[in-house]
Amino acid sequence: MIAWFARNGVAANLLMLSVMVAGIWTLANDKIPLEVFQDVPSRFISVNVPYPASSPDETEETIVLKIEEALQPVGGIKHLNSTASSSGGTVFIEVNEDADPREVMEDVKIRVDAIPNFPALAEKPIIQLDDSFHSVITVVLSAEMAEKDLKRLAEQTRDELSALPGISHAEIAGVRNEEIAIEIPEAALRKYQLSLETISQAIQQSAIDLPAGVVQTEAGDVSIRTRGRAYTGDDYARVPVLTRPDGSKLTLGEIAKILDGFTENPLIVKLNGSPCVMITVMREGRQNAITIGDRVKEYIESSNAILPDGVRLDYINDRSKIVKGRIDLLRQNAQSSLILVFICVGLFLRLEAVIWVGVGMVMSFLGAFALMPYLDITINLSSLMGFILVLGIVVDDAIVISESCDSYRQQGLSPLDAAIRGTKRMAVPITFGVLTTVCAFLPMAFDSSDWGSMFRPIAIVFIVVM
User: Fold this and answer.
1) pTM across the whole model
2) Structural domains in the chain?
């Protein structure tokens, strides 16, 4: 094989160029996502059923226990953890390591959707695998304005960030949830002979959307709902709580003090002394972390130029910077290695050998880049560490083979014969050296545990480059 390729230079050069072109094309077309850490598939599934205006005991009995009972036949579940509150119930599912989380989630969906007797006021179950999004960069919006106005501006900023190319999700943090407080004097209850339970039922009836059926048309089925949900304090003020004998209605606003406000939150977020809101931009699936970071920074720069005085956007927790740093480190190491190779090999070998050592190293790396998308490996801290570790071994092997070929050249053999004999001479020891290293990394490459997934890219990159 060695002699055939040496005597058929066109085939060898075409093979080498094909590998290099494939690697360059893969990098140029962003076929390999850039991220901080290799994605580790989540083994946690959440089932959330919103149930407003309920009690924790009622939620546990009518929602949580029914879900737990329905999930008993589902295979692959390691542990269940449930919570019940006045706003709904949530069941957290931990999946066994030997089970596919997505297959388990599909089975969970079938079982939960088949539960026939959830409370009428309970909303549709939300079932999701908790690994969809990964933080890339956090945008900080600071402004001296009312809390409600700051929240509205943050929501607008979040929507604009989510609409940027390559970005699909952003989350707001550092703001309190809006809350409507209803205070009813005891004297008003006695005056109109009302109870808190009666008023609570009236509020619940005004705060829900109810399905009214389906109308079949030529264009398809049309769902009809009665939309009676109250959203603001003014909406609740118009809620009728009593019908008088003359047909007039007593509204909640006539007997209660209704306040639009926010929930209590001991966490206060400020930037340089000004109130602020944090908007975390997330990466989903195979989106590019560096591209997301660059586009967010461009958005911040352009927005700051048009925002009014006192309102400013900044960014923190830029995790794409970590990826850039590792890529720069790899580039610097590659450049340093090439320079050292040229110096060391050039002192003892011919210039042609120096050039081919550099070409061989570049081809090994580009070949690995071409295969990474098919091996489900991204450019991240782990894979870049693999490239950095294997760099020295690749250079060492190239120098050893070059020196062997050059020694035969000095004995008077032709360049072709020297290349064949020198390569054959070192083929066995280098091959066994490579196989020994590969065998050492194989267990890590096939480790499917959560911790193993973090180190798997190092092993695969090491093996592919070798």
Assistant:
1) 0.57
2) 2-36+322-465 (1.20.1640.10), 44-129 (3.30.70.1430), 133-177+266-318 (3.30.70.1320), 181-208+223-261 (3.30.2090.10)
